[in-house]
Amino acid sequence: MSESTSESEGTSPADGVEPASGPTARTDQSGTDETGDDEVVLQTQDLSKFFGAIEAVKDVSIDVKADEILAIAGDNGAGKTTFIRMLSGVLQPTAGEIYLREDGRLVEQFFSSSKDAMDAGIATVYQEQHLSPNASAANNIFLGMEPLKDGPEGWLLRRTDMDHMITESRSLLNEIGFDFDPRSKVNELSGGQKQAVAVARALIRDPPIIILDEPTSEVSTTGTDKIIDLVRGIPDGEKSVILISHKIDVVVDVADRIAVMRDGEIVEILNTNEDDVDRLDIVERMHRERER
Ligand SMILES: Nc1ncnc2c1ncn2[C@@H]1O[C@H](COP(=O)(O)OP(=O)(O)OP(=O)(O)O)[C@@H](O)[C@H]1O
């Protein structure tokens, strides 16, 4: 397979863009491609992150299209986690921009927290999951958005509607292929079931973009298959998924495109629907010494 270069990713927002005037400044621009079919929902331009002298992410420019599963594959230390932490508001970029589609245009974003990113429509499921082990699956899924029982308006002592939370959680878990009691405490669940709770917690907020960080890292072989099905099942015509993994079999099986990351850079983007994707070739590209 010949070394293909990184795709020229979509539009060039730098053209005609006014400089940002402050932390909340926003810049509008058109992000529709020529056909309009592959609508870009998220774009990064020269996104970089230094930790002291270490440049963990270097000038990453990439488009995420509506309804696609984009995998980012790379070896340990390639910069995957740092990259998605910038998209999810946990880290602020040293340089570069993040754009999201809003009202048909790509608009520059300035996330100072993960809540900012969540509010803007990016939900992230971390490999560490961040679940409360002693709370039930339903409580974890609804964390921060618990429905209240009917009661007099303005009455502060209304209780959470646990029945509704259990019914909704059960139905959401079923949708993604899991059938366990949502009243179970998280610390009683298997690795795959915990992952399903974390994904359900992201899905219930109905975000247009979901980032899954290494979702198969802690699950059994059977669990892994379920998670792959789960990832496949997520885009429902509206959702885009960014999947972070160093497991090539997983990314080749589920992704529409695979961005190979090495030494902080995206070195190649493969389209699994068009390119003849060779797993060993990807592994080699992940590991190859950077050409100087
Ligand atoms: N908080 C930090 N402080 C200093 N260096 C960091 C920090 N976070 C990451 N790095 C460095 O940045 C580089 C990229 O790390 P990152 O965790 O993003 O890679 P990764 O591809 O996600 O790796 P893994 O698959 O092991 O999670 C590495 O050299 C790492 O040591």
UniProtKB/TrEMBL annotation:
Pfam families found in the cross-reference section: ABC_tran
Domain ABC transporter: 42-288
Biased composition regions of type Polar residues, renumbered to the chain: 24-33
Annotated keywords: ATP-binding, Nucleotide-binding, Repeat, Transport
InterPro entries linked: AAA+_ATPase, ABC_carbohydrate_import_ATPase, ABC_transporter-like_ATP-bd, ABC_transporter-like_CS, P-loop_NTPase
Biased amino acid composition, Low complexity: 1-12
UniProt-recorded name of the protein: ATP-binding cassette domain-containing protein
SMART domains associated with the record: AAA
GO MF annotation list: ATP binding
Taxonomic classification: Archaea, Methanobacteriati, Methanobacteriota, Stenosarchaea group, Halobacteria
Region span, Disordered: 1-36
Source organism (scientific name): Haloarchaeobius litoreus
